[in-house]
Amino acid sequence: QVQLVESGGGLVQAGGSLRLSCAASGLTFSSYRTAWFRQAPGKEREFVASISWTGVTNYADSVKGRFTISRDGAKNTVYLQMNSLKPEDSAAYYCASGPSAARMDYWGQGTQVTVSS
Length: 117
Hints:
4-stranded antiparallel β-sheet, 11 strands, 7-stranded mixed β-sheet, single chain, mainly beta, globular, 117 residues
């Protein structure tokens, strides 16, 4: 059974940083594409960043230069380092993984990020 567990969310002031973690069991991240998504209240879920099984990364324009996705194979964990946070980054952040961008078969429960102005 696959399980993704996010952690690291919290309350931070604008301009601050947070690092989100997504730990997997029953799945090896280095064999899948893994992505972070976010959803703010009243808004649709949106793509934030992804890392392919080969390590190629991709970012939404809104976070480019501020967020970094990475993977630790030994810990089977994917991270999202978020710097220069803005109030508009406030959302529930979800980790997802699957064989392709169109098939994110596995999702975590989410972790809340709140950025105060």
